[in-house]
Write a structure and sequence with these properties.
The chain has five helices and five strands; from the N terminus they run E-H-E-H-E-H-E-H-H-E. By secondary structure, it is of the alpha/beta class. The protein has a single domain, classed as HUPs (Rossmann fold), CATH 3.40.50. It has a five-stranded parallel sheet with strand order 3-2-1-4-5, sandwiched between helices. Helix 2 links the parallel strand 2 and strand 3. The longest helix has 17 residues.
């Protein structure tokens, strides 16, 4: 069976990213799809806890290799992480985006925004939001 579908996983090196990864691999397996794992950063801080270091990227690649599915890992630096995820989904013709969903207070969303919310609203394809 040829691989035509693409599952994009918005990956972060934490419990939320692991949940997205697990569900993304399951979805890609179900669809016989390729995986695009996106770990984006704004690049404006010395330490970005949501951006995977080289060791964690190597572990991510090992996990994706073990799935037996075709994959690519993208690590863009962009002004807006949500926009980077949506742009990658458009560029890769993603059929679905899988994101880890973290709980945020209404004030937290108002003050800082929500990457997940902006992906949900900006994506041109379905979005699967999962919790750890």
């Amino acid at each position: 069976m040829s691989t035509t579908d693409t599952v994009l996983i918005a990956y972060t090196p934490d419990d939320f990213g692991q949940a997205a990864l697990a569900h993304g691999i399951a979805e890609a397996t179900r669809r016989s799809a390729r995986i695009v794992a996106v770990n984006a950063t704004r690049g404006d801080a010395y330490v970005d806890e949501r951006h995977a270091d080289d060791d964690r990227v190597a572990t991510l690649e090992e996990e994706l290799t073990a799935s037996g599915l075709e994959f690519v890992v993208r690590r863009p630096i962009a002004a807006d992480v949500a926009e980077a995820v949506v742009e990658a989904a458009d560029e890769e013709s993603a059929d679905v985006i899988v994101i880890g969903l973290r709980r945020r207070s209404p004030v937290g969303k108002l003050v800082m925004g929500s990457v997940a919310q902006r992906v949900l609203l900006g994506a041109g394809c379905p979005v699967l939001a999962v919790k750890p």
